[in-house]
Amino acid sequence: MKFTHDVIVIGAGAAGLTAAGGCAMFGLKAALIERAEMGGECLNNGCVPSKALITAAKRAAEANEYERFGIQMAAAKVNWSGVHAHIHEAIAHIAPHDSQERFEEMGCDVYRGHAHFIGPRKVQVGDVELSAPKIVIATGSEPMVPPIEGLDSVPYLTNENIWDLDQLPQHLVIIGGGVIGMEMAQSFRRLGSEVTIIEPGDLMGRDDPDSVAVVVETMKAEGVMFVKGAAAKVTPGVLASLTVTLEDGQEVAGTHLLIATGRKARTEGYGLEEIGVELGRNGIKVDARRRTNLKHIYAIGDCREGPRLTHVSGYEGSNVALEITLGVPTKVDWSALPWCTYTDPEVAQIGMTEAQAREELGDKVTVVREGFDHNERAIAEGDTRGHLKVVMVGKKVLGASIVGKNAGEMLLPFTQAITGKASTFAMGSAIIAYPTRSEITKAAAFSAWEGTVFGSVPKGYAKTRAWFRKTLR
Ligand SMILES: Cc1cc2nc3c(=O)[nH]c(=O)nc-3n(C[C@H](O)[C@H](O)[C@H](O)COP(=O)(O)OP(=O)(O)OC[C@H]3O[C@@H](n4cnc5c(N)ncnc54)[C@H](O)[C@@H]3O)c2cc1C
Ligand SMILES: NC(=O)c1ccc[n+]([C@@H]2O[C@H](COP(=O)([O-])OP(=O)(O)OC[C@H]3O[C@@H](n4cnc5c(N)ncnc54)[C@H](O)[C@@H]3O)[C@@H](O)[C@H]2O)c1
């Protein structure tokens, strides 16, 4: 079979960009296909707009504080069109980094259109047929909208259209108290909306409950309302715009509705079933090397079963690029997986929570806890909310849960403690929570190694392997 490319990558979000860019930097002929905006969910509908909103909301919250440290600011006057502009400026500022032009400069052939498998090694985009011995699926995920009665009778929001709001909601009702629900709730409340979160289970259920409790206390004090229960029905309102009825009959009325009930992997409408790629409960099934049941096809990022975070997509993209180019079989390792929820205070986690460790290792687990109330920087800053919990077996660190100001920036030493690796190479390949300032350490370490990793010898080796793969099939 004559191939058009060494590798085809479907989807230009965090996962696909890293995989395609990595392969191209080793000199492989890489095709990158994107049917919507370059940069995917993180840039256009996810991390970047949400963090921009959080920043604007934080400014309003600071202005609205009563006198602190002898200083009283003028109360915040929120101009929603200015907040909206800031969100879209942040996206526009980062867009060139993920752009078609940049990836073409790196050596990728970028195709804009819907990709569809027409064979196990063939993909069609528009009227172009592409083929390659290796294919990477990085098609991402979309909001999971539960089948709530009457939902279609109201114009509801998800993370895909909330950035287009032309006015600040008067009362935002949020179904789902996970990460999106909590980050959005605090932001809109701080900007002046009334906000109610409806959640049947634990708020931010993946995090340590002691961390979550600190944030919930702050959010309650700021006026966010929490209602326990599952949303069962939505009705257009008479005075208010809508009413959500819970399974137990409670009613919550508001003017706007945000659905934040989790993500659904994008696995439909591009021929996966026809070529026999196996699917799991919510995503493509993969092994530890991110290979599907068809071993030459990889699935990375939000489209496969597993954690859904930008830094995870990037990590899997580079692992797969290394495997395809240099033949390094890189198994994923989640033992030092970090994540952070950018509420105020931030909730950051790496590795195991106390509950996970106790479930796996019982009473061998020890936990040490330090509060910020004894931290002199926190005292001087007048913000002692929060604590650090370190989860260990003996003195070996398994995980850490941090809640407090800039908690996401405090995870890096625990990456090194858990992995036991602290070289510049390890720093360059560490998984670092996105978006944090700590990522700059990875960038610096990567720069130190770039010339070696993408030097003439590894590139020559990668190209020879790709040539054999294309020619000997
Ligand atoms: C509101 C929100 C806030 C978030 N905040 C954070 C955060 O702070 N930190 C964090 O780490 N994570 C965050 N996330 C999660 C993060 O955005 C995702 O994990 C990440 O963007 C997934 O990247 P991906 O490349 O796997 O998928 P995506 O970014 O979804 O990219 C997939 C791409 O594939 C394209 N595509 C799909 N099918 C086809 C096809 N057939 N042909 C061609 N193209 C196709 C899509 O158009 C899309 O551009 C957030 C998510 C949301 C929704
Ligand atoms: N800071 C970050 O890293 C960040 C920020 C935002 C989003 N994300 C990513 O985005 C993804 C999605 O976030 P999310 O908040 O949508 O999902 P989630 O899984 O975190 O939370 C969804 C919540 O919705 C609740 N729910 C489900 N059905 C419901 C119903 N009928 N009524 C009321 N509640 C209901 C669930 O109990 C759950 O708590 C996650 O994978 C996350 O990793 C990450």
From TrEMBL:
Pfam family of the protein (one): Pyr_redox_2
Superkingdom assignment: Bacteria
Keywords from the UniProt entry: Disulfide bond, FAD, Flavoprotein, Membrane, NADP, Oxidoreductase, Redox-active center, Transmembrane, Transmembrane helix
Location of the FAD/NAD(P)-binding domain: 5-317
Protein family: Belongs to the class-I pyridine nucleotide-disulfide oxidoreductase family.
Domain Pyridine nucleotide-disulphide oxidoreductase dimerisation as annotated: residue spans: 338-444
Protein name per its UniProtKB record: FAD-dependent oxidoreductase
